[in-house]
């Protein structure tokens, strides 16, 4: 018996279809492709023109390839949008937590715990490059050694993502030697001279991972730079209280 509806063609997952069944179904439902136009772009319908491929077939193949490429671009765009949306939400919550801290100690503790969790990091820390002899619970590193180890990265205006050199890992994460990628976020304070007496050092934030590609050089640093700017304004506000 021939099926009497479009859905009857696949009523059961166990149903076995052969070419005759499909052909019979399409004969009984000539309007099928009118309601399933997306299938036409995937079908291969030869255009007989002797032994050579006809111009029509070649045009159809070209259009199909372009359609597939366009679909891939759309899929990539949607995936990037989804990832950016997730990253924006993480950034938003981090920033809200940052502006609610009331001291540099509280801020440092937040960076160590919050960023590890939200950015799937192995270690994260807010450092201050200054005088390590200063009696402070903050993570203070020798200024000159930090400059030497970071080199040009010390003067960067934007975040850096990539691998760390052994001497950099040893300085920033001596207890976590298996770091394979990191994000270095410089924090530039405006009017830093006015804060000299209360500033324990030049602030630098690092987020590190054991995964080699977690913070790779092709990663967009827009959200990290934004966090750095918020940290700059908040640190200044804390010091001027």
Task: Provide a compact summary of the structure.
With 241 residues, this protein is of the alpha+beta class.
Overview of the molecule:
This protein has about 240 residues and is α+β, with helices and mostly antiparallel strands. It has two domains: about 40-100, no CATH class; about 105-240, Beta-Lactamase, CATH 3.30.450.40. The chain has helices at about 20-30, 55-100, 105-120, 145-150, 165-170, 220-240, and strands at about 125-130, 140, 160, 180-185, 200-210. It is elongated, with a radius of gyration of 30 Å. It starts with 18 loop residues before the first helix and ends with a helix.
Identify the notable features of this structure and list them briefly:
single chain; alpha+beta; Beta-Lactamase; 2 domains; five-stranded mixed β-sheet; elongated; disordered N terminus
Please state the structural category.
alpha+beta
Average of pLDDT: 82
Main beta-sheet strand count, sense and barrel state: 5 strands, mixed
Total helices: the number is: 6
Task: Give the SSE layout.
Layout: H1 19-28, H2 55-99, H3 104-118, E1 123-130, E2 139-142, H4 143-150, E3 160-162, H5 166-172, E4 181-186, E5 201-209, H6 222-239
Parallel strand pairs: 1-2
Antiparallel strand pairs: 1-5, 3-4, 4-5
């Amino acid at each position: 018996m021939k099926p009497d509806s479009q859905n009857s063609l696949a009523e059961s997952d166990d149903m076995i279809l052969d070419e005759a069944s499909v052909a019979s179904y399409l004969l009984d439902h000539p309007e099928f492709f009118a309601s399933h136009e997306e299938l036409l772009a995937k079908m291969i319908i030869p255009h007989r023109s002797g032994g050579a491929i006809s111009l029509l077939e070649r045009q159809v193949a070209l259009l199909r390839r372009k359609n597939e490429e366009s679909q891939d671009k759309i899929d990539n765009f949607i995936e990037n949008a989804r990832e950016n949306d997730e990253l924006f939400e993480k950034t938003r919550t981090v920033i809200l937590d940052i502006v609610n801290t009331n001291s540099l100690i509280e801020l440092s503790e937040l960076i160590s715990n919050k960023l590890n969790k939200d950015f799937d990091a192995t270690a994260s820390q807010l450092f201050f490059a200054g005088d390590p002899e200063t009696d402070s619970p903050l993570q203070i590193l020798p200024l000159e050694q930090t400059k030497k180890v970071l080199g040009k990265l010390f003067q960067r205006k934007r975040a850096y993502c990539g691998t760390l050199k052994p001497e950099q890992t040893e300085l920033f994460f001596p207890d976590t030697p298996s770091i394979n990628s990191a994000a270095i976020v410089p924090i530039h304070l405006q009017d830093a001279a006015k804060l000299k007496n209360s500033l324990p050092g030049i602030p630098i934030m690092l987020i590190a991972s054991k995964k080699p590609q977690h913070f790779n050089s092709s990663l967009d640093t827009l959200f990290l730079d934004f966090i750095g700017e918020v940290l700059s304004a908040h640190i200044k506000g804390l010091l001027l209280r």
